[in-house]
Amino acid sequence: MGGHIILNFITTLILLFAIHLSTSIALDPCASNPDDSDLTVIPIYGKCSPFNPPKTDSSWPNTIINMASKDPARLNYLSTLVPQKSVSSAPIASGQPFNIGSYVVRVKIGSPGQLMFMVLDTSSDEAWVPCSGCTGCSATTFSPTTSTSYGSLGCSDPHCSQVRGLSCPETGTAFCSFNQTYAGSSFAATLVQDSLRLATDVIPNYSFGCVNAISGGSIPAQGLLGLGRGPLSLLSQSGSLYSGVFSYCLPSFKSYYFSGSLKLGPVGQPKSIRTTPLLRNPHRPSLYYVNLTGVSVGRVLVPLASELLAFNPNTGAGTIIDSGTVITRFVEPVYNAIRDEFRNQVKGTFSSLGAFDTCFIKTYETLAPTITLHFTGLDLTLPMENSLIHSSSGSLACLAMAAAPNNVNSVLNVIANLQQQNLRIMFDTVNNRVGIARELCN
Ligand SMILES: *[C@@H]1O[C@H](CO)[C@@H](O)[C@H](O)[C@H]1NC(C)=O
Ligand SMILES: *[C@@H]1O[C@H](CO)[C@@H](O)[C@H](O)[C@H]1NC(C)=O
Ligand SMILES: *[C@@H]1O[C@H](CO)[C@@H](O)[C@H](O)[C@H]1NC(C)=O
């Protein structure tokens, strides 16, 4: 009896010790991995993010529905990403009341480094951050005056001519200033340069926009890091450091405590990964186009006219992989055909919820077919988690895709975040390919 108690006591001690050990060893789950160039990719409304969900009802399905309601503005934005030379004012939806962008990464700017949580955007090139004194920005800003490595750039700087929305005078030695629209809001910035630190990598003299004024509510509060393929993007400005290669793995929307990872450079990328060619559109230099050749619902290859999926550099038509759109959007005839086949296979009645028009009672979920995206040389069968979303009450499941807004520019199919959860997506801009592999990243 006494021995039993002592044993219990010792067990308790060991347990307590173990718990103590694990809490003191456990790394901050929100910290960036300090050992290599992996960066954590944090869901903007996840635990590790400084941003709070916009609504009081912050269950994850409602957060997604709120976020997805901004997708039409995002698609408009993507449809207007033309090179700066031919830019004209674009039709843009009115500003939304909360910030756009789905994932943030921790970045340090300046010397000593100032921490910013910047939105990751694979469809933009420029980086920009709110600077101190900015009109309309939130409290966290970058302070140029406290950085010893800061410099401003003039209109004659080669990087200046690559900025979209440039507003330099024809002559003179003005600062390089530009105005841009982003997801229905606009901002005024000047191009500056300073050190950019990502995990342990430092890129000196990185050119980015110092935002001086914003109007509208959808400008990312702590700035944006452009991972596009155009001239001012991270890949272009980091030269040989990353050899034109990066990948990310986005965590599940459900496990919002967790973060995914951004791997910059060829080191540490998956050795065997199926790939599809990356297509270049000179009229949309930032975007990562791929060749979507078909979509299957269960075993049925959905009949789709090939011109609805075809890549056309002149009209901008085709399919891109994007990190800033929440749910995948297909041009209307493509979406309707996929949805009709899906409904056909799931017996039951259907209702709508937010952007989703194919919701059904969860008990029918076992009948829900898988969705397979066929790309040149690569078939991607979406895990169920990536094709269905559940209502916050849990009684409904919805097909988590939608039609692109039906306007004149509606030619673009966008493979979005929700469909990319727990996949490693690797962009190799030197060998022009995109690799996709399953990975549990949360
Ligand atoms: C840029 O934005 C600023 C501030 O909103 C405004 O004063 C300026 O006129 C704009 N410039 C151009 C060229 O649109
Ligand atoms: C960065 O810019 C500063 C000022 O323009 C210059 O003195 C310095 O040599 C540059 N550093 C690098 C690494 O290019
Ligand atoms: C896309 O795939 C289709 C079907 O295989 C092919 O006919 C077409 O040429 C491809 N387009 C590009 C731009 O590679």
Automatic annotation (TrEMBL):
Q: Which residues form the active site?
A: 121, 322
Q: Name one Pfam family in it.
A: TAXi_N
InterPro entries, sorted: Aspartic_peptidase_A1, PEPTIDASE_A1, Peptidase_aspartic_dom_sf, TAXi_C, TAXi_N
Where does the signal sequence lie? 1-26
Q: Which key words are in the record?
A: Aspartyl protease, Disulfide bond, Glycoprotein, Hydrolase, Protease, Signal
Any one Gene Ontology BP term: proteolysis
Ranges where the Peptidase A1 domain occurs: 103-437
Which terms does the record give in the GO molecular function aspect?
aspartic-type endopeptidase activity
Q: PANTHER family this protein is in?
A: ASPARTYL PROTEASE AED3-LIKE, ASPARTYL PROTEASES
Q: Which family does it belong to?
A: Belongs to the peptidase A1 family.
Protein name as catalogued: Aspartyl protease AED3-like
